[in-house]
Design goal:
DUF3105; 11% strand; disordered N terminus; transmembrane; 231 residues; 4 helices; membrane; Membrane protein; Glutaredoxin; transmembrane helix
C-alpha cells in the first residue's frame, strides 16, 4: 500500500524552506548595506582626511602668504624696505635722549627727530593738524613709532591734500604745518628725516614703509591716541 505524504509535514517543510530563503536574502541585504555604509564611511573619512590635509596645506600657504603680504606691504611704492632713502639724514640714536621734561627743549634740527620731550604725546593715529603742533609732544609721538609729515606755505595745495589723505589712512602718523623748516615738505621719524619734492615723490612711500613702527622706534606698540590733540 502506498504511503501518502502528510500535507501538514509538507507544508511545514515548505515554510521552513521559504524561511531559509528569506533569511538568506536578508543576510545578503545586510551585507550589501553594511558594505555600502563602510564604503561611504571610508570615502567620507578619506574626504575628511584630504580636507584636513588640504586645510593644513592652505593654512601653511596662508601663513606664508600672510608673511609675503606683510613683506610686500613693507615695500610699497616699489621701494625696498631696507634700501637707503636718497637724501635721508640720520642721527645717532644713542645721542637722542628720551627723558620726560617740563622745561622747553631747544632741538638742534627743525623739525626735531628725537631728544627729551613732554610726557604727553601728540595724537598720531592718522591725525592731520591745521596748526603747528608743539615740538615736545610731537617728538614723543616719534618715540612711539610715528612718522611726522610737515610742510610750509611753499607746498602746493594739491600736495598737502594728497599727503593729508595718506596720513589720515595711516595709523602711527601725523601731519602739521611747520614754520622755519628747510624744505617745503619734510618727513620725520625717530632719528630719521628727509625732504621730498612732493606728495608723489616715491620716497614718501618708502619713508612710511620703513619707519611707521619701524626698527628705529624706541617704544614700538606704545599708544598714538589718548594724548594731546588739536583743540
Amino acid at each position: 500500500m502506498a504511503i501518502q505524504d502528510d500535507p501538514n509535514t509538507s507544508r511545514r517543510a515548505r515554510m521552513e524552506e521559504l524561511r531559509r530563503i528569506e533569511q538568506t536574502r536578508q543576510r545578503r541585504g545586510r551585507i550589501v548595506v553594511i558594505s555600502s555604509v563602510t564604503a561611504a564611511v571610508v570615502a567620507v573619512a578619506g574626504l575628511v582626511g584630504f580636507g584636513v590635509y588640504e586645510f593644513g596645506k592652505a593654512d601653511d600657504s596662508g601663513s606664508k602668504a600672510a608673511d609675503t603680504t606683510q613683506t610686500e606691504a613693507q615695500a610699497q611704492g616699489g621701494a625696498d624696505a631696507k634700501a637707503p632713502i636718497a637724501g635721508e639724514k640720520d642721527w645717532d640714536p644713542k645721542k637722542l635722549t628720551r627723558n620726560h621734561v617740563t622745561t622747553k627743549v631747544n632741538y638742534p634740527m627743525k623739525p626735531p627727530v628725537g631728544g627729551d620731550h613732554d610726557q604727553v604725546w601728540m595724537n598720531c593715529g592718522g591725525d592731520v593738524y591745521t596748526q603747528q603742533v608743539p615740538d615736545m609732544n610731537a617728538v614723543h609721538s616719534l618715540e612711539h613709532g610715528a612718522v611726522w609729515v610737515t610742510y610750509t606755505d611753499k607746498a602746493s595745495a594739491a600736495d598737502v591734500k594728497k599727503l593729508a589723505d595718506k596720513v589720515s589712512k595711516t595709523p602711527y602718523s601725523l601731519m602739521s604745518p611747520y614754520k622755519g623748516q628747510a624744505g617745503a615738505i619734510m618727513l620725520s621719524a625717530w632719528g630719521k628725516q628727509v625732504t621730498v619734492n612732493g606728495a608723489d615723490d616715491p620716497r614718501v612711500n618708502q619713508f612710511f614703509t620703513q619707519y611707521v613702527q619701524g626698527p628705529q622706534t624706541p617704544e614700538p606698540g606704545a599708544p598714538c591716541t589718548g594724548g594731546l590733540g588739536e583743540q
